[in-house]
């Protein structure tokens, strides 16, 4: 079995630094979950990583959606719906885990890997192209620094989760 589930490559970059950095963090968390399952760390350890992955995903989606709003992205509603659908599926899984009706499995990991790969390569890259062409981004450079500072604080916080 491979050492990692999801090997990051620059081919996944969408051209927005904050988004690309967050995608790498999501991939890292997915790989941590894979390692916990593979190495039989136990359901409690796996669940903690899954919860961290779910929370970070929500934060990531909020940033993406904010960038879509400020750049007047025409595909916003569909993209946001994709985000909401995934969040609902993960929430349903967490509820099943809480009641003992499900277990964290390699099938779950495969689903998340396929979803993330497809979402980045299709939906996120379409948005990245729009964002690069967008001319209505006054103040983005300043806001980008604020986002970067916030996310650096988040990265610090995640280390202690």
Structural features, described:
The protein is mostly helical. It has one domain (16-152): Hemerythrin-like (Four Helix Bundle (Hemerythrin (Met), subunit A)), CATH 1.20.120. The chain contains 5 helices and no strands. It has helices spanning 17-38, 43-70, 76-98, 106-133, 140-159. Helix 1 (17-38) runs antiparallel to helix 2 (43-70). Residues 155-161 have low confidence and may be disordered.
Judging from the principal axes of the Cα atoms, what is the shape?
globular
What portion of the residues fall into strands of 2 or more residues?
A: under 5%
Q: How many DSSP helices?
A: 5
Number of domains: 1
Report the end-to-end length measured between terminal Cα atoms: 28 Å
């Amino acid at each position: 079995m491979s050492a990692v589930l999801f090997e990051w490559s620059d081919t996944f970059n969408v051209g927005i630094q904050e988004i690309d950095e967050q995608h790498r963090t999501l991939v890292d968390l997915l790989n941590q979950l894979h390692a916990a399952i593979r190495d039989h760390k136990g359901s409690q350890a796996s669940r903690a990583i899954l919860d961290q992955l779910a929370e970070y995903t929500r934060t990531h989606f909020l940033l993406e959606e904010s960038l879509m709003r400020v750049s007047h992205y025409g595909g916003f509603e569909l993209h946001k719906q994709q985000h909401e659908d995934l969040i609902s599926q993960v929430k349903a899984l967490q509820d099943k885990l809480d009641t003992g009706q499900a277990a964290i499995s390699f099938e779950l990991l495969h689903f998340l890997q396929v979803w993330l790969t497809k979402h980045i390569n299709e939906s996120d890259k379409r948005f990245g192209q729009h964002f690069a062409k967008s001319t209505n981004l006054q103040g983005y450079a300043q806001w980008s620094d604020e986002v970067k500072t916030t996310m650096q604080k988040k990265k610090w916080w995640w280390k202690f989760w």
